[in-house]
Amino acid sequence: MTDTPWQGDACSLVDAFRAGERSPVEELEASLASIKGSKLNNWAFLDPERARQAAKDADVSMPFGGVPAGIKELEQVEGWPDTGGSVVFKDRIADHTCHHIQRLLTRGGVVPVGLTTSSEFGGLNVSVTKLNGVAHNPWQYGRTVGGSSGGAAAAVAGGQVSVASGGDGGGSIRIPAGYTGLFGFKGTFGRISRGPHAMSRPNTVVLGNLARSVRDAARYHDVCDGVDGYDPTSLPHTTSWEKGLGTQDLKGRRVAIVPSIGGAILEPGVEELIREQAALLAVDAGLEVVDLDVKVPNLAAQWMMGNLSTLLAELDTKWPRCADDLTGEIALGLFLAQSMYNLNTAAVAEKMRVDANLAMAKAFEEVDFIFAATNPGPAFSAESTTSNPDDDLIDMIQSNVFTKWGARGALASVRVAASMFPKLPSLILDEAARRFPSMMAMGALTIISNIYGNPAASVPAGTLNGLPVGMQLLGRHHEDALLFDLALTVERERPWPLVAPAVTEALSAAS
Q: Of 235, 141, 245, 253, whose CA–CA distance to 195 is shortest?
């Protein structure tokens, strides 16, 4: 009988199934027991009955045949809750399965355990919602797991399941991977279908998974990528990512080491660690380090404003009556967008996006790769929404009902004023970014690759104060295979823990 879930990667679990060393049924029961006994609070919904039937019928000849899997709660599975992580939709049930997950089930053969928690509508880089509460980091309880794919990262790093789906629209795979010591890969935009309801905005979301190993992520992409008529931006499947691992010629390629790309302010020790690990990878892969100053604008505020239009479409007639049911940051963001997003703000955002694209394109004319930090620092308090709570304007506003309603009134005044002075909203946003940098900095390191659409990955780069730090590997469009091999080099030369050490220690003590 299997007492604890598999602590290796998903690919090795499949090997164990095929060799008769483990069984999908026993593995599932171990996962369910682990989840039940956990305090991480990282699952929004469990379906043991469906999972047990899937485990019983598992075909272990499939790529992930019989492997228990977590599904991010922002993705639809027919018959399961479709809440978006929000109280507003707490009773909504999915009437279809999104194509990404359909491929994971039918092509991959996973056993669907349930829905892992995310931030509300994926709007924040943490995992705190009114619906699900606070998810915790398996490396240290009380620390954030990041977001929006935070519950997935906690499930994989926490030893509950060895594979879980994620999505990355501004860093939402790489950020939690960085905070939990996992491998997080965001492919070139369009790599995995967003169908059947692929919105034209924000055109930054790339789907994928949280992985313990590079080969897990490569196999996942083999299973899930490819053209889908329901997503006109989807790319063709052109190669086997897993079979191609270790075959790329990296020697002599050029790299720029830019720890704080996007203008983020890094916490003490992060830049030194990233530079050290980047230099080691450059030597291991035979790369030529180039001194290149990559300056890209921080688009966080203007980018967010326009993208909230898709949320308004989803809320429909429920807005603004539902404002108090939403996470404070999401509600205030919608009020901000309605007050400040006009034709002038859109023009500024588009110009910034073009400038960002030009800066990245010019950089990749000079180098093949850029190495940067994934997050400003290690995981902060699980209940906070930014890495610097002393600089959190949102919390300050939401903590006081009079301040909150005063802010809404002020925003209404801004909307009126903006009709006479169209440039006013952009000036206010610029001033907010200057005065409250951490409010705008969350995701500043990762969002540039969503805006530009190039592949990027977070690899474990060691620890600070006992908590993981992630290093980003950025590459050119469609050169995903090169990033897989860079990450493989890190994995071979400096192997990382496949699950959080706290989990391993607890299992050792229990045995």
A: 235
Instruction: Give the DSSP H or E segment for 436.
Output: none
Residue 356 half-sphere exposure toward CB, CA atoms < 13 A? 26
What band does 385 get if pLDDT is binned at 50, 70 and 90? confident
Separation of alpha carbons 288 and 80, rounded Å: 50
What's the mean per-residue pLDDT of the chain?
90
How far is residue 88's CA from residue 486's CA, in Å, rounded to a whole number?
A: 42
Q: Is the N-terminal amide bond of 176 cis, ω within 30° of 0?
A: no
Beta bridge partners of 166: 208
List phi, psi (to 5°) of 279: -65, -40
Cis omega before residue 202 (within 30°)? Answer: yes
Tokens found for residue 405: 């309603």
Bridge-based pairing state of the strands 128-129 and 111-116: unpaired
Whether the pLDDT of residue 397 is over 60: the answer is: no
Residue 474 contacts residue 494 (beta carbons within 8 Å) = no
pLDDT surpasses 60 at 438: no
Map tokens 């100053």 to a residue.
293
- How far apart (Å, rounded) are the C-alpha atoms in residues 220 and 215? 8
User: Boundaries of CATH 3.90.1300.10 in the chain?
Assistant: 10-248+479-510
Q: What mean pLDDT comes out for the span 462-485? A: 98
- Please, what sign has the CA dihedral across residues 229, 233, 236, 242? negative
194 token code pair:
């967003």
With a CB cutoff of 8 Å and minimum separation 6, the contacts of 132 are 41, 44, 85, 117, 151
For residue 309, the surrounding DSSP H or E stretch is helix 300-315
Q: Which residues pair with 210 in a beta bridge?
A: 164, 184
When pLDDT is averaged across residues 48-53 and rounded to a whole number, the result is: 98
Cβ neighbors of 68 (< 8 A, separation 6 or more) are 5, 24, 27, 28, 31, 51, 55, 110, 111, 113, 161, 162
pTM (predicted TM-score): 0.93
Which of the four pLDDT bands, split at 50, 70 and 90, describes residue 431?
low
Sign of CA dihedral 264, 376, 252, 221: negative
Q: Please state which CATH class domain 10-248+479-510 belongs to.
A: alpha beta
- At position 435, the amino acid (one-letter code) is R
